[in-house]
Design goal:
The chain is α+β, with helices and mostly antiparallel strands and 276 residues long. The protein is 13% helix and 31% strand.
Length: 276
């Protein structure tokens, strides 16, 4: 009975302080419905390709079971998956809260990435000598009701190899090109081909308020297995484009388009830069 009372109390309290989250809005009444949002792409450098990191996103993929070279695992008492963005920057989803807690409590975190040699490996990635130096929690707000966050980790300087290299941050426009190849990265670090659906497919006729914030800021794909990261391949380079939302319908998957939030991510990094 004690547990039942605690659960009821917690759920009732959550509902009491956030009643608007349960309210449904007609599709046509959603404040973002029918609006074509256009976001200015970031300028990382003045060279022809405007890359977030030198030689990022290039990968000669040999087979479908090969682990992507930008996959890294932050390991404390347990591990979580992240993406290498530069020599000192790794980004992860908010599910890495346990590793964040371990680090803030003074525990040393390990990094697994690159080629697995010997027995000291994790999910096919080898233990690196570099350690985690710092972490910043970056809050992302897509409106008044939708909030999430990412962790931006600072590592000792990584040494890039063919099996350890950064993925690019998206540096093009906000439009979705059907000619691009989209992939979701599974929890084993492998790329799985996906397809882009019309954004309406991910939403019903009734919107919750947080969905109204997401609408116009999201990318819709068929639901896949466990995945946090959406990547795009354009002209032979892989780019990090979307972050999995925590709540989504059963048949489709909603991804938060990270383009509008690139500057926030870069500002939390030690070695990524965006030009004014």
């Amino acid at each position: 009975m004690k547990w039942i009372w605690l659960l009821c109390t917690a759920s009732c309290f959550a509902f009491a302080i956030s009643p608007t989250y349960a309210e449904k809005i007609n599709r046509s009444d959603c404040w973002n419905y029918g609006k074509n949002k256009s976001f200015v792409a970031p300028v990382f450098s003045l060279d022809d390709e405007n890359l977030s990191a030198k030689d990022c996103g290039k990968w000669d993929r040999n087979n479908e079971d090969e682990i992507a070279p930008w996959v890294a695992y932050i390991f404390g008492k347990s591990s979580c998956e992240g993406l290498i963005l530069s020599e000192q920057t790794i980004i992860s989803h908010n599910f890495c809260h346990l590793q964040h807690r371990d680090f803030t409590q003074g525990k040393e975190l390990k990094i697994f990435s690159g080629e697995c040699v010997g027995e000291n490996c994790h999910r096919g990635r080898g233990l690196l000598s570099q350690k985690v130096l710092d972490v910043k929690k970056v809050k992302i707000e897509a409106g008044n009701f939708y909030h999430t966050f990412v962790y931006v980790w600072k590592a000792e300087k990584l040494r890039f190899t063919p099996s350890l290299k950064p993925v690019c941050l998206w540096n093009k426009n906000s439009q979705i090109d059907v000619k691009d190849n989209f992939y979701y990265l599974d929890n084993l670090g492998k790329l799985n081909s996906s397809q882009i659906l019309a954004e309406d497919r991910c939403y019903g006729d009734k919107f919750e308020r947080y969905q109204c914030d997401l609408y116009g800021n999201s990318i819709c794909t068929p639901k896949s297995g466990l995945s946090y990261f959406l990547l795009i391949n354009r002209d032979g380079r892989f780019y990090f484009r979307g972050l999995a939302d925590n709540v989504y319908p059963s048949a489709m998957l909603v991804w938060l388009d990270l383009l509008p939030f690139t500057r926030q991510i870069v500002s939390a990094s030690n070695d990524l830069k965006v030009l004014p």
